[in-house]
Specification:
Length: 569
């Protein structure tokens, strides 16, 4: 074999070493779920879907992102009737069958299943499948809004279709808040709602929505201002707009165009004009903003973090396999300390994101089951925003690191999933709230509901419950948190300081929470399994972010710590 053949053989070795199941090799996910479920649980749906996601879905998602297969706008049918439809490739529909049949939305029929939905969505996220992930998230938001606020008639009429696991018959949803004058500032919405004289209790919507993903949806959730209602967020209503009217025609809207995007290209994102679309209010008109943000966007923000976490794991898998196969200067690149350090950072950051995101799933399930206490509710309100912000930042960073490990090949679309994951992340960073807007919301909510005090109580109790073996690490987290808590309290007390410092302190808050949750997980593993496999990533992350005195280069044991991080699956 000459050098060229050897080099290509090593690339083939890399391809062959890629996982064929995203669940079975993921020790941390399995241990986290086991702790959350209180012991062994039925893993079969995850094993099955983890296999599908790593093979058929992964392959189809890659092909479906090639431009000839992107969604197309069909405004008229063959004989010139206005239809305002989106056409997709057959592969897109095949992907949809796998996704819905796995129960990604259907799980929400029972309360307390967020953990399972999140686990399935996380496995799907490894494949970077965006064409159905976003509809699943939007549909979940509408399901929750109707379950919590819809009238009985609305529940009967729409929930069975929304929860239907059969792709061909399921109803899927979109959520349209953003208008051309602003997305973050939803209170600036200008779209109007007027009473519908033809059908009392329903409304007619007029106006324009600027970013409309899932433009093919059967049901749109839309924010609009009833005529005469107050300005700002207080006057917004939340409406359900079926795509079709009673006769099966277009329900009072037209699509201007599909947007050409840097990422999420298999998803149809459009600009829509509404001209008298018949709409059904969800909940009371004056609580529209609360429903749109508190239920719908919070569902999306949680799921956005699930996707970020999945992308981090995939980037790590790609990069580790490559580092084992690729040789440079006479040895596998995975033997070089600088490469090992990068891989360890990717792995530890993913572990922190996974622990925080699945903790959020626990908080949601407790609320849905009615077992949440006051602090659970406060923690959810805080973490749903803080965690989306931080997970989306570190996900982009992790993928970037993965691309670096792949060298020039990392920049090539046909070589690996990483360029697509990275392009998609740039979109997901701003979806459902840009970084600053989320951090400012944390600040406003904290001032109003005393969220930071709740975070302080929860964090301390997590650290107090850590196993004695982790006392030194718990002490480091406690000290760092004490400083962060002072900063957060100052943000609340001093508006001007808060407006410039909150983002940094939210970042620190997330680092402290991730650390405390990983220590709690490691402690549980030690008690239940006799060995704390999560300890290495917990300690690494704590040294990296919270131990102000730690200097990796001054620590002779640091390379062994990196090895320990890279050992477990
Ligand atoms: C591909 C794609 C699909 C989308 N699909 C949908 C959809 O289906 N439905 C939907 O409703 N929306 C959708 N969006 C819109 C998206 O949710 C918004 O773009 C996002 O919420 C940010 O709003 P904006 O673009 O108006 O930015 P702005 O709110 O104008 O923000 C611009 C910048 O200013 C900063 N900023 C704003 N306010 C403050 C403040 N108070 N303090 C400090 N900084 C601030 C922001 O952080 C940001 O960096 C989509 C966006 C994209 C890119």
């Amino acid at each position: 074999m000459n050098e060229t053949d050897e080099g290509r053989a090593r690339l083939a070795q890399w391809e062959a070493a890629k996982p064929t199941n995203f669940y079975t090799g993921n020790g941390l996910l399995q241990r986290l779920l086991e702790r959350m479920r209180g012991g062994p649980f039925d893993e079969r749906p995850f094993v099955e879907f983890g296999g599908l996601a790593a093979t058929k879905i992964d392959d189809a998602a890659r092909k479906n992102d090639e431009w000839p297969r992107h969604p197309r706008l069909a405004r008229f049918d063959g004989i010139g009737r206005r239809v305002e439809e989106i056409e997709f490739d057959a592969l897109y529909h095949q992907l949809g069958k796998w996704v819905y049949e796995a129960g990604l939305v259907a799980r929400l029929a029972e309360p307390g299943q967020t953990w399972a939905q999140a686990a399935l969505a996380y496995l799907l996220g490894h494949a970077g499948e965006m064409g159905h992930s976003c509809p699943v998230v939007c549909t979940s938001g509408l399901v929750r809004a109707i379950q919590q606020k819809g009238l009985d008639e609305m529940k009967k009429r729409w929930l069975p279709g929304l929860l239907d696991p059969v792709y061909e018959s399921r109803l899927h949803a979109a959520q349209f808040l953003t208008e051309v004058q602003g997305g973050g500032d939803v209170g600036a919405n200008a779209m109007t709602a007027r009473p519908n004289p033809a059908e009392p209790g329903t409304w007619l919507l007029d106006g324009e929505k600027w970013f409309c993903s899932v433009a093919d949806a059967a049901l749109f959730l839309v924010t609009a201002r009833p005529v005469g209602a107050a300005a700002g967020t207080a006057g917004l209503g939340c409406f359900l707009v079926p795509r079709h009217d009673a006769s099966g025609g277009v329900n009072g809207f037209s699509i201007r165009r599909l947007k050409e995007k840097i990422g999420t290209r298999t998803l149809a994102t459009a600009e829509l004009d509404f001209q008298g679309a018949v709409a059904y209010p969800i909940g009371r008109l004056d609580e529209g903003f609360k429903i749109a943000v508190g239920i719908v966007l919070n569902t999306s923000r949680f799921m956005n973090a699930v996707g970020s976490t999945a992308a981090m794991r995939r980037a790590f898998l790609e990069a580790t396999a490559y580092a084992a196969a690729r040789e440079a200067f006479g040895q596998p690149i995975g033997a070089y300390p600088l490469v090992r350090e990068t891989l360890a950072i990717m792995k530890a950051e993913h572990a922190g994101a996974l622990a925080a995101t699945f903790y959020l799933a626990e908080l949601i399930d407790r609320q849905d089951l009615g077992t949440a206490d006051a602090d659970d509710r406060k923690l959810h309100r805080l973490l749903v925003n803080a965690n989306k912000y931080w997970a989306s930042i570190i996900a982009t960073d992790a993928i970037h690191r993965g691309i670096e490990i792949l060298g020039g090949n990392g920049a090539i679309e046909s070589f690996s999933v990483l360029p697509r994951l990275w392009r998609d992340r740039l979109v997901l960073e701003s979806w459902e709230g840009s970084h600053n807007v989320l951090c400012m919301q944390v600040l406003h909510d904290a001032a109003r509901y005393e969220l930071f005090a709740a975070a302080d109580r929860r964090l301390r109790s997590l650290l107090d419950a850590a196993d004695a073996q982790f006392a030194p690490q718990a002490a480091v987290v406690r000290d760092a948190w004490a400083e962060t808590y002072r900063g957060l309290s100052r943000c609340v007390a001093n508006e001007r300081y808060g407006a410039r410092a909150i983002r940094l302190h939210v970042e620190e808050l997330m680092q402290a929470f991730q650390a405390a949750l990983l220590l709690a997980q490691a402690s549980w593993e030690k008690r239940q399994r006799g060995a704390a496999a999560t300890a290495a990533v917990a300690e690494f992350l704590i040294s990296r972010h919270l131990d102000r005195a730690y200097r990796p280069l001054a620590d002779d044991a640091h390379p062994a710590k990196v090895d320990a991080v890279l050992q477990d699956g």
